[in-house]
Amino acid sequence: MKKFILCLIIIFQAGLIAFADDLIYKYPANILDVEFPQYSTVSCKFNQTKTIPGSGAFVNSGGDFTFDIKNGAVFETLYPFKSTTAYTSDKRISDIILAVSKKDYSYINKNFDVFYLKNNQNWQLALKPKNDSKIKTVMESIVIYGNKYIEKLEINTVKSGSTKINFTECK
What is the pTM assigned to this prediction? Predict the structure, then answer.
């Protein structure tokens, strides 16, 4: 009987987590009303989990993240192997990062449906590509969680699975 009750509790909690993740889409927003921190530069530690579609497998990595409003975002991965990814050459990703950080309302309104939820100092911003946007061919959604700094970023793509990035020690 205890195992049965424990199973029910686990199933219920999993349902609440899934519901909480989808809750953001119940709050459409005008990008002009979104309170989003603006930075000229920021650096953080990051850890990332990338799911590999169709396999159930995932890859964990982590390292140092820097963002400069003039140069874009750079992920310097330190494990499981060293590499550097700069989102200055990938035009679509760079455009999205710069549009959000600069509050480029025209780019965001043209390409995304915007959802926003704020509770005290915590906030969530979700961007879903509009049906007529070219971005819809590669991206399903971006969800950004934060407080003073961005704390978590979820990127869901059409073919490449999902990527969840947690940021810590931001300054």
Answer: 0.78
